Amino acid sequence: MQHRICLYVLSAAIGASTAPAQALDLALPGVNTGATSFEDGGGGVGHMFQTSNSRFDANRNYDAKGEKRPMRYDRALWIARLHYAYTSSRQAFGGHLGGELIVPLLDLELDLGPAHVSGSGLGNPSLGGYVQWRDKRLFGKRLDARLALAASLPLGDYDRNAKLNPGTDYYSINPYYAFTWHHSDAWEISGRLMYLWNGSSDDPETRLHAAFGQPVHRIQPGRALHYNLSASHALNARWRLGLAMYHLQQTSADRINGHAQPASKERLFGIGPGVQWRAGAHRFIGNVYAEGAAKNRAAGSQLVARYLYVWR
């Protein structure tokens, strides 16, 4: 069982570095872009602990039209997530009830033009509940699935005067539906369909005042739809090889002081190979992604390495 990234790096000043005043795009809080892949919908009664690490490297930053911004941009971001989940024997809606907690830590190095920013800290923890279904049928084939409601809590490191904030001072809600469809004993197709809703901040970062061109009293990043899809083939009882992808599309504009911001929607796409090793209660998954089709975001590459341990 794998779950969402809970990371926030507010780069509004970065996004506004080439934008006129009154046309500021905020950065969406971090979500699951490629952090889950093969056999994502599975899960049985018991406990699961996962340590998940992602490395993002990017040297391209794109504007609202998908054109590369001319200013120098170089980002190296590490995210480590500690994740505990428990699926109980109690049932509802034909599945088993469960809960999860994810605590993210991050380390960032960023060069923007002549400026250099670095920092590390605690991101917003994520707490959620879910229903887990096993051994259902779709077109006569086995289907495992999970429906979850997760909230990112404003408990991470946040200081309105800081240059870099690992956490936010507002809530985000990120429900998802994860599934794994077993086409055969060897082939499986997995996906996670997600929605992001963000609350508002009444104590926004002070640097936004200069970027926006007037005092900023309230901000609210827009809503977004995003998904992960993957397919893998079992080489033997322990090893799988496959391909995974992700896509994020912001669906509503950011709001500053109650006003929608033009050309503020984000987009990102990533695709690449992956491998999985499983032995008893132990499981390792690695994915590599190349990113593109970005708008109001940076794009580059991502490496994901996850280790899971399951016990009853």
List the helices and strands and how they pair.
Layout: H1 12-15, E1 46-61, E2 73-92, E3 95-112, E4 115-122, E5 126-138, E6 141-152, E7 172-173, E8 176-182, E9 187-198, H2 207-212, E10 219-220, E11 224-234, E12 239-250, E13 255-256, E14 259-260, E15 267-279, E16 282-295, E17 298-311
Antiparallel strand pairs: 1-2, 1-17, 2-3, 3-4, 3-5, 5-6, 6-7, 6-8, 7-9, 8-9, 9-11, 10-13, 11-12, 12-15, 13-14, 15-16, 16-17
What does this structure look like?
This protein is about 5% helix and about 55% strand. It has helices at about 10-15, 205-210; strands at about 45-60, 75-90, 95-110, 115-120, 125-140, 140-150, 170-175, 175-180, 185-200, 220, 225-235, 240-250, 255, 260, 265-280, 280-295, 300-310. The chain starts with 11 loop residues before the first helix and ends with a strand.
- Please bin the fraction of helical residues: under 10%
Number of strands: 17
Biggest β-sheet strands, sense, barrel: 14 strands, antiparallel
Radius of gyration: 20 Å
Looking at this structure, what is the CATH superfamily?
Autotransporter beta-domain
Q: What shape does the CA trace take?
A: globular
Give the helix/strand class.
mainly beta
Domain module tally = 1
Strand content: over 45%
What would the CATH topology be? Lipocalin
Question: Helix-strand pattern, N to C?
Answer: HEEEEEEEEEHEEEEEEEE
Please work out how many helical segments DSSP would assign.
2
Determine and state the CATH class.
Mainly Beta
Mean pLDDT: 92
